[in-house]
Specification:
Layout lengths: L1 H31 L4 E2 L3 H28 L4 H19 L3 E2 L2 H23 L4 H8 L16 E6 L4 H9 L4 H9 L15 H10 L9 E4 L4 E4 L3 H11 L10 E4 L9 E3 L12 H12 L4 H24 L10 H28 L3 E6 L1 H9 L4 H7 L2
Parallel strand pairs: 3-8, 6-7, 6-8
Antiparallel strand pairs: 1-2, 4-5
Helix pairs in contact: 1-2, 1-4, 2-3, 2-10, 3-4, 3-10, 4-11, 5-12, 11-12, 12-13, 13-14
């Protein structure tokens, strides 16, 4: 009985923290926006509570509508979905006055403030994001073989074994340290065959061969042109040459954010299968839920802005300290780092959480944030190592 009580107490604490965070965020929005007004600050406490209830009712409707009607509705849901929910809460509380435009701006200010408070209170964990997806209202289909354990393959791209060892010893990578401390896991080095590049290694893992992939980019004599592994058309060619139809994910697996599919029946953001299409309703529903959730797209966009500021500061500090070797780190890389280290990482996590909720047998996901930063900052520089902490 005690074991069952702890999750309920944790849930109550998380609910109170979310309520308090939403209230503080709305108070900040009230102070910044002249179009919002309240007769008393306590009214925002009520609005925060009503917003939670309204979101529970309205958000599934917005998600389902965008999933049924197609991708054109997913992006609008991302930008105005939370505003619709907040405005619905505002008009139900007589002490609050404000337009829909004010609610739209307030929803984004609240998202930014909520992101900051959430980072301070939880050390930047993804608990809120994963929890919001794991507890969606729509019931997941029961797996056909519930007694067979599933497998989640997580590729942290480009991390050398000595760097990971050092990170564990230095007190970083808290989840991996917890696994190792439990005694159920061990850290082992794997030396890939040449070439030791992401395309070759991932092709070997997912399809069992590295033949015909001599580098990241190379001149292909048969095609008479250069192949680049992270271009969708070229990744498709590479996979078609390597696959035998029985890749790692062929048995009810899903590929998330990879170069190749591993013969998965469904592939999300996978280079060799990227195409402009409506996709499945289930896929659009997962994307739409991430976009509409306050712990999804809005949170990630706020973190993206923070990541740009962090990158510009770290780049200037490298120059000021005359750290060598170093490469030029301009605004283009700052935006790329922000996308991979915030938006893409959160989206990957959301999609993986959704697939785990559905009972998918095997999931393979690639997180590229460390690799992108290490290429520009250095393998063991603080900016790259911080990406391993999540």
């Amino acid at each position: 009985m005690a074991r069952r009580g702890r999750p309920r107490l944790a849930d109550a604490g998380r609910l109170l923290l979310t309520w308090a965070t939403s209230t503080v965020a709305l108070l900040v929005a009230d102070a910044l926006l002249p179009g919002l007004s309240a007769t008393t600050e306590l009214a925002w406490v009520v609005v925060a509570a009503v917003t939670g209830v309204a979101g529970f009712v309205i958000r599934p409707v917005l998600v389902e509508a965008s999933a049924r009607l197609g991708w054109l509705l997913v992006l609008p849901v991302a930008f105005v979905g939370q505003a619709v929910i907040l405005y619905a809460a505002m008009i139900t509380v007589p002490a609050i006055s404000g337009s829909f435009g004010s609610a739209f701006l307030a929803s984004w200010i609240a998202a930014a403030v909520g992101t900051f408070i959430g980072f301070v209170s939880t050390a930047g964990t993804d608990d809120a994001l994963v929890t919001s997806l794991a507890r969606r209202g729509r019931r997941a289909p029961a797996p056909t073989d519930p007694d067979v354990p599933g497998v989640l393959f997580v590729q942290v791209d480009g991390v050398p074994f000595p760097v990971l060892q050092w990170a564990v010893q230095a007190g970083a990578v808290p989840t991996i340290r917890r696994w190792l401390a439990s005694g159920s896991y061990v850290l082992r080095e794997w030396t890939p065959q040449l070439p030791c590049t992401t395309p070759a290694s991932q092709l070997g893992i997912l399809h069992g061969t590295v033949d015909g992939v001599p580098a990241f980019r190379w001149y292909d004599r048969a095609l008479g042109r250069v192949l680049v592994a992270n271009r969708p058309a070229d990744a498709k060619v590479i996979e078609e040459r390597a696959t035998n139809g029985r890749g790692l994910l062929a048995d009810d697996g899903v590929s998330v954010s990879n170069l190749f599919t591993g013969d998965a029946h469904r592939s999300l953001m996978t280079m060799s299968r990227i195409e402009v299409s409506r996709g499945s309703t289930q896929t659009r529903r997962a994307f739409a839920w991430f976009m509409a959730s306050p712990s999804g797209f809005a949170r990630s966009l706020s973190r993206t802005v923070v990541e740009v500021v962090k990158e510009r500061f770290q780049a200037r500090r490298q120059v000021a300290r005359n750290l060598e070797p170093r490469v030029h780190r301009g605004w283009t890389f700052a935006m790329l780092r922000a996308l991979t280290n915030a938006l893409l990482r959160d989206l990957n996590t959301a999609l993986v959480a959704e697939e785990m909720r559905r009972g998918t047998r095997a999931i393979y996901v690639d997180y590229v944030d460390y690799d992108e930063i290490a290429h520009h900052a250095g393998l063991s520089r603080p900016g790259a190592l911080s990406a391993l902490d999540g």
